[in-house]
Specification:
Layout: E1 7-11, H1 14-17, H2 30-34, H3 53-67, E2 71-75, H4 78-81, H5 91-106, E3 110-116, H6 122-128, H7 135-151, E4 157-162, H8 164-172, H9 184-207, E5 213-219, E6 223-225, H10 230-253, H11 258-266, H12 275-283, E7 289-292, E8 297-300, E9 329-330, H13 347-361, E10 365-369, H14 387-405, E11 410-416, E12 435-438, E13 448-451, H15 453-463
Parallel strand pairs: 1-2, 1-11, 2-3, 3-4, 4-5, 5-7, 6-8, 7-10, 10-11
Antiparallel strand pairs: 8-9, 12-13
Bound molecules: 6-O-phosphono-beta-D-glucopyranose.
């Protein structure tokens, strides 16, 4: 059973929806620059216009109200608030998010604000290599101070950093996101600074006297072993340590686990972990963990010649992308089907994720992303029959209900996404929303919105607080 306060919701991110990339004083983010370099994104698409939420937020929030959405997770664009990352504040940027938050509140929709969803100000990348420079901790904290001061009395749910694991992997190991690097050392350095920035933000939030829920959202893909062979079980253990607990232990316990530290050291990596850092990590523990869940990861011990090629995006990873082969290797899971983009579909994996996090940390969990990326077809009479999305979400909701029944404290569920939006590496072909946005890679058309079948289905789920999930 879902309790009455359950935050049924949906999510988005600034760069993927706002557009208005270069107006009203906004500075460039690393994505504004990166997406304009030919070959970096699918069909060279970018978020210059995206779905123009900047100008259409009232229309979109009216749709949220009509649907009965209880919460909406969105992110703030750092360079819209601080065009050069630090220094002068852009009043138009501050005003825009006040407008969005006020509109949401007036519509009865609880705002869940993500502070950082990958659009680092380009100036900070230029000045000190972004997340690789320690100064990012200070600049991020300063940015957070502005957000807390402006919006802290209106917003009760804060996501500090979105999927630190994903943007650092894609950006520093696989060269698929900015800054398009392939360096294990850079990856761990950038992560260390992101941990400090996250902790510093949470510490500041508490010091400023706010008592809302705050924490990062991890892209959480629980690890399975390919077989019951003890060597595969050890591969899974290493996978969990390096691929899940590395992040969650620091966020929730406030320290690097000794196993992770040793595994990292074995790779020849050094982390500049000072005594002050250790204190900060302790002082900045989250009081809620955001869970972005899409699929599980099955691993086996690496064997020469059996390396599984990674798929999953239209823009593919290079053959020489860095990996953790010495510890574990991706394997197929014969029990699971996949989406049209090759992501395994595993609703039970979400329950596994919630259970593992609860037994390890016993913290409130907020599902901050889950959804199905698919090709949708708009019919001539303006409909989208996305029964596949309904099936996908229904199965995931039911597993969450079981996890709650089994003792997990789940605050809410933000589906990805409310509107169709720009997919970083898949343009506008891969759609996730309840609301179809009529545009493609070639043309923005009129960016008209259409309600999909899933819009009405989710409306009923929310209205009945999940009861309708049990209807035949
Ligand atoms: C998450 C991100 O990793 O997955 C989102 O937080 C992203 O920003 C979502 O859009 C889906 O990924 P993709 O590549 O299918 O758009």
């Amino acid at each position: 059973m879902f309790n009455k306060e359950f935050l049924w919701g949906s999510a988005s991110a600034a760069y993927q929806i706002e557009g208005a990339a270069r107006i009203d004083g906004k500075g460039d983010s690393i994505w504004d620059v990166y997406s304009h370099i030919p070959g970096n994104t699918f069909k060279d698409t970018n978020g210059d216009v995206a779905i123009d939420f900047y100008h259409k937020y009232k229309e979109d929030i009216a749709l949220m109200k009509e649907q009965g959405l209880k919460s909406y997770r969105f992110s703030v664009s750092w360079p819209r608030i601080l065009p050069t990352g630090s220094g002068d504040v852009n009043p138009k940027g501050i005003e825009f998010y006040h407008n969005v938050i006020d509109e949401l509140l007036a519509a009865g929709v609880e705002p869940i604000l993500t502070i950082y969803h990958w659009d680092l100000p380009q100036s900070l990348q230029d000045e000190y290599e972004g997340w690789e420079g320690r100064k990012v901790v200070e600049d991020f904290t300063n940015y957070c101070r502005i957000l807390f001061k402006e919006y802290g009395n209106k917003v009760k749910y804060w996501v500090t950093i979105n999927e630190q694991n994903v943007y650092t992997s894609l950006g520093y190991l696989f060269d698929m996101h900015p800054p398009k690097k392939r360096s294990m050392q850079s990856y761990y350095t950038a992560n260390h600074h992101a941990f400090l920035a996250n902790a510093s933000a949470i510490k500041l939030y508490k010091e400023m006297g706010f008592d809302g829920m705050i924490g990062p959202s991890l892209g959480l893909g629980p690890f399975y072993a390919a077989t019951s062979h003890p060597e595969d079980i050890m591969a899974m253990e290493d996978g969990q340590e390096l691929g899940n607990f590395y992040w969650t232990d620091i966020y929730c316990n406030g320290y690097y686990s000794p196993i992770v530290l040793r595994l990292i050291e074995k790779m020849g990596i050094t982390i500049d972990l000072t005594d002050e850092d250790k204190e900060l990590l302790q002082a900045g523990k989250c009081n809620m963990l955001g869970v972005n869940y899409y699929s599980t990861q099955t691993v086996s011990k690496y064997k020469e010649g059996e390396k599984l090629k990674q798929t999953g995006n239209t823009v593919q990873m290079g053959e020489d992308a860095l990996s953790f082969d010495q510890f574990y290797n991706s394997a197929n899971n014969p029990h699971l089907g996949t989406t049209e983009w090759g992501w395994t579909i595993d609703p039970t994996g979400l329950r596994v994720a919630l259970r593992r996090m609860t037994s390890r940390y016993n913290l409130p969990l907020l599902i901050t992303e889950n959804g199905l990326g698919a090709y949708d077809t708009l019919t001539e009479d303006g409909q989208v029959h996305d029964d596949y999305r309904i099936d996908f979400l229904k199965e995931h909701f039911l597993e969450v209900e079981k996890a709650i029944d089994e003792g997990c404290n789940v605050l809410g569920f933000a589906t990805w996404s409310f509107q169709d939006l720009f997919s970083w590496l898949n343009g506008y072909a891969k759609r996730y929303g309840f609301v179809y946005v009529d545009r493609d890679e070639e043309s923005e058309k009129e960016l008209k919105r259409y309600k999909k079948d899933s819009f009405y289905w989710y409306q009923e789920v929310m209205k009945t607080n999940g009861e309708s999930l049990h209807d035949e």
